[in-house]
């Protein structure tokens, strides 16, 4: 009877497909030459999911003390950059889909590695925890000419004001965008002027300025689907970070009418939505409790955030 080392490499690759990425690059690929070769099978690297690596965690987010209260020292820890470098030795340039975990602390060097070594990215999801240099953003998205779907979140308490124009200007195939950050008037203007190819847009669980929203719906002529489920609405953006009494869980009648008339699908919640209440309690009433907020966003990241644009 032949041993594992003689097994057909395509079958081995199928079995490896059930392992997580770390187990392949740090484990299976190091067993023998046959497994090493099977680990390079193209089918393993087209879509890379780094959101389900527990109990393996990456020890590079300076904010981890705030949310990883159950840290276990026994866990193996890796640096994101090392993992990315290792992955790209196996994946070559064939990766089209890359999903990073909510907590990964992406820095300019990490984005540069992904951009340079994964130029064929069509779909990517990641979180922005820190400010990135504008040139770095420009460089990254100039490499991803085939980008079709982008899921990008910014934790609410990290008040970053990143200009997204470089994304729209470089990625002319971008049709699906999910942004978990506040829809301000400036952002609405960027979306209208620099993201004209967009057909599907989601701000699920984000905060939205009513004036910005109205301007976006009226002025973006290619937009077909707008998902605003579980959003918080405010008249002007300063109110979102200030007087909570002015906030609401429903858009105005005028907005609902305009959205329904201008779009194929305008998705908003009903007033008895339970998730909306959870978002309200955790993100707004509980403002200041970063731990609860991060945990909630992480849970949503693993369920709704990425799944919504899985097509
Ligand atoms: Zn809701």
UniProtKB/TrEMBL annotation:
Q: Sorted alphabetically, which SUPFAM superfamilies does this protein's record hold?
A: F-box domain (SSF81383), RNI-like (SSF52047)
Report the superkingdom from the record.
Eukaryota
Listed A to Z, the keywords are:
Membrane, Transmembrane, Transmembrane helix
Q: Transmembrane stretches, by residue range?
A: 15-38
Question: What PANTHER family does this protein's entry cite?
Answer: F-BOX DOMAIN CONTAINING PROTEIN, EXPRESSED, F-BOX DOMAIN-CONTAINING PROTEIN
Query: What protein is this chain from?
Result: F-box protein At4g11580
State the species of origin.
Answer: Camelina sativa
């Amino acid at each position: 009877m032949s041993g594992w080392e003689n097994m057909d490499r395509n079958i081995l690759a199928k079995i490896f497909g059930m392992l997580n990425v770390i187990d392949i690059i740090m484990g299976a690929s190091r067993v023998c030459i046959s497994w090493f070769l099977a680990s390079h099978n193209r089918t393993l690297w087209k879509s890379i999911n780094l959101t389900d690596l527990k109990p393996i965690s990456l020890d590079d987010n300076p904010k981890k003390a705030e949310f990883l209260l159950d840290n276990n020292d026994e866990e193996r820890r890796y640096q994101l950059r090392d993992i990315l470098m290792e992955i790209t030795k196996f994946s070559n340039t064939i990766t089209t889909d890359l999903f990073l975990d909510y907590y990964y602390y992406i820095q300019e060097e990490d984005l540069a590695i992904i951009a340079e070594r994964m130029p064929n990215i069509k779909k990517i999801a990641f979180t922005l925890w820190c400010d990135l240099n504008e040139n770095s953003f420009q460089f990254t998205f100039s490499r991803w000419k085939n980008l079709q779907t982008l899921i990008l979140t910014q934790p609410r308490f990290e008040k970053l004001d990143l200009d997204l124009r470089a994304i729209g200007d470089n990625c002319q195939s971008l049709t699906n965008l999910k942004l978990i950050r506040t829809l301000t008037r400036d952002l609405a203007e960027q979306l209208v002027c620099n993201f004209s190819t967009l057909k599907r847009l989601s701000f699920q669980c984000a905060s939205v300025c009513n004036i910005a929203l109205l301007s976006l719906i009226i002025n973006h002529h290619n937009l077909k689907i707008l998902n605003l489920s579980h959003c918080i609405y405010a008249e002007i953006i300063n109110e979102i970070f200030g007087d909570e009494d002015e906030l609401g869980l429903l858009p105005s009648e005028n907005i609902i009418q305009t959205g329904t008339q201008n779009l194929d699908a305008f998705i908003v919640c009903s007033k008895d939505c339970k998730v909306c209440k959870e978002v309200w309690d955790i993100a707004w009433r509980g403002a200041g409790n970063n731990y609860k907020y991060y945990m909630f966003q992480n849970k949503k990241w693993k369920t709704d955030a990425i799944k919504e644009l899985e097509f």
